[in-house]
C-alpha cells in the first residue's frame, strides 16, 4: 500500500520517534511510505478541490495515518511557562482532510472519530463518555468569569479543553487561582475536575478491538504523570476490568487506535481521557511491545 504518515510534527525539526518508527516498520512490511508535516499540506479551491502534500494528492494514498496538528517545544515547560500545544484553527483543516480522503476512498486511521470534536477536546469527550455511562471523575466546565464555586473539595484540577501532554493543566487551591486561569484561557475553555492525590494512573493502548498492553504512569515530583512532564512508565498486565473499560471508552468514540488514560480512586476505575492516536515511545520502551507491528496488522486487515 501507499501510506502517508501526516502530522506528527509541524516543522522539519519536529520529526519524532513515532514518525521514524512508523516509517521503518511499515517499509519493512513491504509498504511504500511517505512522511509529511502539516506545514506541507496545500488546500486548493478552483474548478475542483484538491488537497496535496509535497505535490501528491491525498487521493493517491491508500491509507493515511495522521494526528491533529501539534506545536512542539524543545524545553520542558515549567508551571510559569504556558505552551499552547494545540493549533486551534487547524482542526477545521484536519476535518476537511479526513472528509476529502474518505470521498476519494482513501482510508484514514481513526476516521470515524477524526471528523468529530471528540478527537480534539476534553469537554466533548466527557459528554460522550457520560452518554455511554462510562465512569469519569466529577468535572465542570467554567463558562463565565464570575463562576467560582463548585461542589468539589480543594485542591482540584483545572485544564484547558484542548491541552495536551500535561501542558495547561493546573492544581488549583483557591477561587482566585481558578479565576486567573479562566481569564487567561477564556470562558468555556477550562474544565474543572476532581483531584485524586495518588500521583499515578494507567495508560492502556488499544488497536482495533484489542488492548495490546498497558503501563503504569508515575511522577513523584508532579501531580501530572505525563512523560512530557517527567513521568515514568512501568509495564503492567491490565486487569480484565481495566481492559473492558478501555474498550468501552474507545468504542464510545468509534476509535481504532487510542491511548486510554485511567485512574483508580476508592477501588473504582475512571477514564481520564481518550487519546486519539497516542504517542507510543514511552509505551514501547516500558513494555517491549511492538506498537508499529500491531498497528500494521490492523491496517492490513
TrEMBL record:
Q: Which residues form the ATP-grasp domain?
A: 126-300
> According to the lineage, what is the superkingdom?
Bacteria
Write down any Gene Ontology CC term: cytoplasm
Q: Which Pfam families match?
A: RimK
Cite the Gene3D superfamilies for this sequence.
Answer: 3.40.50.20, ATP-grasp fold, A domain, ATP-grasp fold, B domain
Q: Name one GO molecular function term.
A: ligase activity, forming carbon-nitrogen bonds
SUPFAM superfamilies, per database record: Glutathione synthetase ATP-binding domain-like
What keywords would UniProt list here?
ATP-binding, Nucleotide-binding
PANTHER family per the UniProt record, alphabetical:
BETA-CITRYLGLUTAMATE SYNTHASE B-RELATED, RIBOSOMAL PROTEIN S6 MODIFICATION PROTEIN
* Protein name in UniProt: ATP-grasp domain-containing protein
Q: Which organism is it from?
A: Candidatus Spechtbacteria bacterium SB0662_bin_43
